[in-house]
């Protein structure tokens, strides 16, 4: 079992075992405990009372973080004609169908792909390449749409996609340690609000079982999950 370094162990002292914190306190601790020599990402991990093996208990969705993620997102748009122009004006980094061929040749220098519905016949075969990497455009994520300007603008503004994993957990970035604490709080609140809204009707009992925030290298800080619980 790997051992944590000295800096991690020192930071961990600030989080007593079994104690939970208010969101603002937890985020401030995450900022204070960050010790890496780079601007670490702040992440949230939520454990949910769902069984992802059942189709009616899948939790997924999107949310536009009020203050973005702190990361420059490279957006590729597969579109033609007027939609190409709309995508370019909205700030897309790459636009055009020629990128479909480039992807088949191994090019993957983008973070999100948007496609108009009429282009999915050409984009569909890329599923075996993009699917495992979470890059395949999907209607549920809002990345298969004729409103490419809105899609690109939202992604650039901080829109992220989330999906429960096979163990019932949802992980997402909510900013950087260089963000102000209130910016991280706003982003966390927006994310958790969407998690609660995405509760499947088949989920029973306490839907949100745990919420933990951390920086890339730092220890996790647990937040009181009762703050995000609603009656069944």
Automatic annotation (TrEMBL):
Keyword Hydrolase: no
Gene3D superfamilies assigned to the protein according to its UniProt record, in alphabetical order: 3.30.190.20, 3.40.50.790
Keyword list, A-Z: Repressor, Ribonucleoprotein, Ribosomal protein, RNA-binding, rRNA-binding, Translation regulation, tRNA-binding
Gene Ontology CC entries for this record: ribosome
Oligomeric and partner information: Part of the 50S ribosomal subunit.
Protein role: Binds directly to 23S rRNA. The L1 stalk is quite mobile in the ribosome, and is involved in E site tRNA release. Protein L1 is also a translational repressor protein, it controls the translation of the L11 operon by binding to its mRNA.
Protein family per UniProt: Belongs to the universal ribosomal protein uL1 family.
Descriptive protein name: Large ribosomal subunit protein uL1
Source organism per UniProt: Gaopeijia maritima
Upper classification of the organism: Bacteria, Pseudomonadati, Gemmatimonadota, Longimicrobiia, Gaopeijiales
């Amino acid at each position: 079992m790997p051992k944590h370094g000295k800096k991690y162990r020192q930071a961990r002292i600030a989080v007593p075992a079994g104690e939970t914190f208010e969101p603002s306190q937890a985020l401030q601790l995450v900022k204070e405990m960050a010790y890496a020599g780079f601007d670490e990402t702040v992440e949230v991990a939520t454990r949910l009372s769902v069984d992802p093996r059942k189709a009616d208990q899948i939790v997924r969705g999107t949310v536009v973080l009020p203050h973005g993620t702190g990361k420059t997102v490279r957006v590729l748009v597969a579109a033609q004609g007027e939609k190409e122009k709309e995508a370019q004006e909205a700030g897309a980094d790459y636009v055009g169908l020629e990128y479909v061929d480039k992807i088949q040749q191994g090019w993957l220098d983008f973070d999100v792909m948007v496609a108009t519905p009429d282009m999915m016949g050409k984009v569909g075969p890329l599923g075996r390449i993009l699917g495992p990497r979470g890059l395949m455009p999907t209607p549920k994520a809002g990345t298969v749409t004729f409103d490419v300007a809105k899609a690109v603008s939202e992604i650039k503004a901080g829109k992220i996609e989330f999906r429960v994993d096979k163990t019932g957990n949802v992980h997402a970035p909510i900013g950087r340690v260089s963000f102000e604490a209130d910016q991280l709080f706003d982003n966390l609140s927006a994310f958790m609000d969407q998690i609660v809204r995405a509760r499947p009707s088949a989920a029973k009992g306490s839907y949100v079982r745990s919420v933990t925030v951390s920086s890339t290298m730092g220890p996790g800080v647990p937040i009181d999950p009762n703050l995000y619980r609603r009656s069944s």
